[in-house]
Every structure is written in C-alpha cells, then in structure tokens.
Amino acid sequence: xxxxxxxxxxxxxxxxxxxxxxxxxxxxxxxxxxxxxxxxxxxxxxxxxxxxxxxxxxxxxxxxxxxxxxxxxxxxxxxxxxxxxxxxxxxxxxxxxxxxxxxxxxxxxxxxxxxxxxxxxxxxxxxxxxxxxxxxxxxxxxxxxxxxxxxxxxxxxxxxxxxxxxxxxxxxxxxxxxxxxxxxxxxxxxxxxxxx
Length: 196
Prior knowledge:
Layout: H1 2-13, H2 18-25, H3 33-44, H4 48-65, E1 85-89, H5 97-107, E2 111-115, H6 126-131, E3 138-142, E4 145-149, E5 153-160, E6 168-176, E7 179-186
Parallel strand pairs: 1-2
Antiparallel strand pairs: 2-4, 3-4, 5-6, 6-7
Helix pairs in contact: 1-2, 3-4
C-alpha cells in the first residue's frame, strides 16, 4: 500500500515539490527494500507460498525491471573507439557563455548537446556565442536545441515530439574515421503541468 501511494505521488507531482522530486530521481531499487524484508520473514516462518511469491517478485525486479542479464559471449574490445558526449541545459545562457565554455573545455567532449540554448534577450547572438564554447566545431540547431561536434554533421532534421508539447527532437549524423553515429538531442519535460 505504501509503495502504491509513493508511486501515485511520484506520477502526479514529480518535480513540483522536494519530496516528489526526490522520489523521481533517487535510485528506484530502494523500493525493493520491503521485498527483501518479506523474503527474510518468509524464510524465518518457513512459509513456502510467501517465499515463492516474494521470490518471483524479486526475479521480476532483477531481470525485466533492472535489466540484469548475463552475456552469452564476451565482446571483443580490440576494435573499439571512444566518443565523449556531453549534454547540458544551459538555461538560455543565464550563467554566461564564459562559464559554459570553461565547463566544456574541462570535460573536452567530442559531441555537445545543449538545451535551452536560445537567448531570450539577444537571440541573434546566441548561436555565434554558443559556437565559441567549441571553436572550429560543426553545428546543428533547431529552436532551443543545439548539437556541436568535432566531426562533420550531415542529415540533420528536427521532428516535433507531439502536437501540443511545443518540443522537438533534433537528429543528426556525425561521421568520423569511416564510421557514423546518429545523435539525438531533446529537452524533456520532467514535471506535470508543462513546467520544465
């Protein structure tokens, strides 16, 4: 009953107050703690039915919900490559381009996805300022979304997320070393009531 109540609070008020936000972003495995206690009690009281039901619930949590799996064969890492991706909501550059540039310089990403990258006060200067955070980069942009890449971009387009969401998904392809990777950037709405 408690878990059902917490799920309703999380679903209905996620992001609107500190408790609901905590429920929304904390590790979801914590909700399985009562199951562990029930398993221990079932074993102590030697209640086979309770033990079987709680054991089945534990398997459902571990495998489908948490995605646990055992790989059939080990993947070879000899031909692997690294791509460093950074994503950030820059809140319409409210903290200043220089601070954003320092953060990007420190993390040195190959691909940078920015949300709320449109300046409210000076929209005409926004993209040229944003490009300064990764000099010499390639860029793709749509409204508040920007993708910056050290590698050439192609096949860029934006598609709306929904008729009344007012949001979009920006998709582009980066090519490097004979390979290509598709990059998506979007700004999700985490709260109820259309607040971001």
